């Protein structure tokens, strides 16, 4: 993974990719867009064919990173 990327599982069973505290949600196939794309943020990333590695990353955001807290269960919740 590039940077400090990791997959995180949310309480609603959704999986996001977190990179340097910013989160990306799946758009289609290997493409993930910033979770705050609705605010006009253009950050995005692309995974390799196995969907385990980031092969391209645009981590320029127009907002502060969202704050997530990891519960004892391992699930993440947005604060
Ligand atoms: Zn963003």
UniProtKB/TrEMBL annotation:
GO-annotated molecular function: zinc ion binding
* Protein's UniProt keywords contain Zinc-finger: yes
Do you know which Pfam families this protein is assigned to? Answer: FLYWCH
User: What positions does the domain FLYWCH-type occupy?
Assistant: 14-63
Q: Which domain of life is it from?
A: Eukaryota
Keyword list (alphabetical) reads: Metal-binding, Zinc, Zinc-finger
Per its record, how is this protein called by name? FLYWCH-type domain-containing protein
Question: What species was this sequence derived from?
Answer: Spodoptera exigua
